[in-house]
Amino acid sequence: MIGSLSGAVELGLLYSLMALGVFITFRILDFPDLTVDGSFTTGAAVTAIMISHGNSPWLATLVAFASGLAAGACTGLLHTKGKINGLLSGILMMIALYSINMRIMGKPNISLLGVDTIFASISPLVFMLIVVIIVKLLLDAFLHTDLGLALRATGDNSRMIRSLGANTDSTTILGVSLSNGLVAVSGAFVAQQSGFADISMGIGMIVIGLASVIIGEAIFGSGSVFRATLAAVLGSVVYRLVVAFALRVQWLDASDLKLITAIIVIVALVLPTARRSVKARSAARRRSLELAAAAAAPKQGGVR
Amino acid sequence: MLELSQVSKLFNPGTADEKIALTDIRLKLAPGDFVTVIGSNGAGKSTLMNIISGVMKPDYGEVLIEGKPIHALPEFQRSRWIGRVFQDPMAGTAPRMTIEENLAMAYARGKPRGFRLGVNRSKRAMFREQLQRLGIGLENRLRAKVGLLSGGERQALSLLMATFTKPQILLLDEHTAALDPARAELITRLTDQIVRDLGLTTLMVTHNMEQAIRLGNRLIMMDKGRIILDIPEERKRHLTVEQLLGEFEQISGHQLSDDRIVLG
């Protein structure tokens, strides 16, 4: 049990970079970016092919990051310059990346068994903990710079930030690009840790990312940038713990995971809205009753 | 300072919904001019604002700031010279960001946005000082999310954000119209004070006749995409709302109709 627990934490940290990427598009830019499913695999594919050709795993991870940046930039360009709907530009890029990933790998699966990866000499748990903390803090710092503020405002009130002189096309492209860069690095680490890259490993990644961000927010809050990024990371870990627990249930299969994930996201998305509307309705009712009672009360004067 | 020459704009050209928004607008603002703009619904007041700020491009004609033609530049590039306050109090600020972060974004107007910290100690002190001028206590709430502020407070903040970098041109697009009378009065007072203090060249659209006469040193009246009357300072000082409405009827041949009009 302890073993599977630390295994879940390790997975959570590996995928938390992906969750941070999804956080940038989904929460900051308010842009549901489906490129993630493709760019995750791109990161893994680039890393696997480079390492298996004898390149340094560090260099391979760096190139994976760059390829993610490029993929995201394409989506951003489609959306801003091509004026294609955000969801559709992500889907188009995701589909395009499937073919590109296949070209990169040359075959649907590349094994990294017996090859030296980053994790050959260092425990994934410790390494990922350090990397995630550094990336999270760097992201926090970036989001407080002039450029970072403009990026956040692009998702919050794009009309305003344009009237203040920021090019929202550029900030959108930058945000989507950075997001997919992080997603690709996550894919690179996952491939190295699991010992293979597979053409279908990115399927459903966006939903896992969304689940992580939403679970994190629900448990840890999102009051400030620091809190929100922390929530995305911890949300990813909690998600893996939930999955580990679900896999121990007898009558559940591993293939049921995607359904469970989708249900988690649906519940998390529906619940706050439903709760808000119920609350608003009951508050309005109470207040109307109060006002009606006040109006009906006999005016006796005196007591004021 | 600001010059529009022969500016024309057509909406939906060549369709059944074709509408003339602006025809042959010629307007010249001297440095420090504070011009109020009134006119009927659909007179082209908002289009005029959008063409100056770059939200729309003119079909024909030129817009110049300090003699430089700017009508081909996109909105975000013009913002170096132009500060703007919108009618909707929600439009001028980012609700999920703090007061100081909003001010930091306005402070970066016209500068390249890079990796410098948006809010640091010296900027924070400056923001606090600026907020004090509004006199509504926002200086004590620098780290509050703007979404928590009332409409009046948000509009006051928008006004400060549009002006404290001293833009060459200030555009006010019915910026008190969505507020209750007390708040509108506060924003009007602040506007007058800030524009005077900084000597900003200002163009203000308003539907409040009394405000249009009281504020500024020049008044223009628009109808059906044209400027039909341009009242200079000397005449404006003695003008009454009745005279203004009478003048409008006489020139345009119909009554000033604006569903939100306030006589004052």
Plain-language structure description:
Chain A contains eleven helices and two strands; from the N terminus they run ααααβααααβααα. Chain A is mostly helical and 304 residues long. Chain A has two domains: 2-248, Orthogonal Bundle (ABC transporter involved in vitamin B12 uptake, BtuC); 257-295. In chain B, a hairpin with a 2-residue loop joins strand 4 and strand 5 (68-69). By secondary structure, chain B is an alpha/beta fold. Chain B has nine helices and ten strands. In chain B, helix 3 packs parallel to helix 5 (151-163). Chain A binds chain B through residues 142, 144-150, 152-153, 156-157, 159-168, and chain B through 53, 74-77, 79-80, 84, 86, 90-97, 101, 104-106, 108-111, 113-119, 161.
Topology at a glance:
The complex is a heterodimer of chains A (304) and B (264).
Chain A: H1 2-28, H2 36-52, H3 57-80, H4 86-105, E1 109-111, H5 124-142, H6 146-156, H7 158-163, H8 168-194, E2 196-198, H9 205-220, H10 225-248, H11 257-296
Antiparallel strand pairs in A: 1-2
Chain B: E1 2-11, E2 19-29, E3 34-39, H1 45-53, E4 60-65, E5 68-69, H2 75-78, E6 82-85, H3 99-107, H4 121-132, H5 151-163, E7 169-173, H6 181-198, E8 201-205, H7 209-214, E9 218-223, E10 226-231, H8 233-237, H9 241-252
Parallel strand pairs in B: 3-8, 3-9, 6-7, 7-8
Antiparallel strand pairs in B: 1-2, 1-4, 4-5, 9-10
Membrane topology (chain A): Multi-pass membrane protein
Transmembrane segments (chain A): 12-29, 58-79, 86-106, 118-139, 170-190, 196-216, 228-247, 259-278
Organism (chain A): Gordoniibacillus kamchatkensis
